[in-house]
Amino acid sequence: DAGVTQSPTHLIKTRGQQVTLRCSPKSGHDTVSWYQQALGQGPQFIFQYYEEEERQRGNFPDRFSGHQFPNYSSELNVNALLLGDSALYLCASSLSRGFYGYTFGSGTRLTVV
Amino acid sequence: GNSVTQMEGPVTLSEEAFLTINCTYTATGYPSLFWYVQYPGEGLQLLLKATKADDKGSNKGFEATYRKETTSFHLEKGSVQVSDSAVYFCALSDGGATNKLIFGTGTLLAVQP
């Protein structure tokens, strides 16, 4: 049973560029959440997607956007990259009904130079 | 707003020593509480959880008790091993539509042989 799969594992981008990160949820899960983990910090909630819509958003600017596809996979897009966007981006999947907790992927390490 | 405070690390112990990592929280209502572990270069793994006051979560020799009167969820293990070296995150979920997680800043545990 595959868990949460994220791609790519590492990425280097230049300031001002745009990036797309991808996530496939655990089999059977229908909800995807994204978190940003800066170095030495705990993960911060970016947003959650369910039924292809953004259900809740954390304190992140509009440069951060997302999408969920009919197969429940998800993308995180970040526009106009800043040096401060360098972080580990974690995807977590869960069930919308009867919440039993999250399954996290291994993350995408984004470095902005 | 809701928040989680963890003791700062790093915590350095010898193998077979007793471990305590303190965690306190601020929340309205009755949150669920979690401990996640992050090994080097990996994502987060759920270690244990508790969903109501006086519940004790346990897994792999680790334990934590949900103490509403002191708003605490301290992590303990009687005898640590070198393989327990990792970063430990305390987190809460306040329920609601998304059950999003709010994390502490993490505590690095280093166990020496």
Task: Describe the overall structure.
With 113 residues, chain A is an all-beta fold. Chain A is 0% helix and 50% strand. The termini of chain A are far apart. In chain B, the strands form 3 sheets. In chain B, strands 2, 5, 6, 10, 11 and 12 form a 6-stranded mixed beta sheet that branches. In chain B, strands 3-9-8-7 form a 4-stranded antiparallel beta sheet, with no helix packed on it. A two-stranded antiparallel ribbon of chain B has the order 1-4. In chain B, strand 10 (86-93) and strand 11 form a beta hairpin. At the A-B interface, strand 5 and strand 9 of A face strand 6, strand 10 and strand 11 of B.
Characteristics of this structure?
heterodimer; A: 113 residues; mainly beta; 7-stranded mixed β-sheet; 4-stranded antiparallel β-sheet; 11 strands; 50% strand; B: 113 residues; 6-stranded mixed β-sheet
Helicity of chain B, as a percent range: under 10%
Write the element-wise H/E pattern of chain B from the N-terminal end onward.
Answer: EEEEEEEEEEEE
Mean pLDDT, all residues of chain B: 93
The value of Rg of chain B in angstroms is: 14 Å
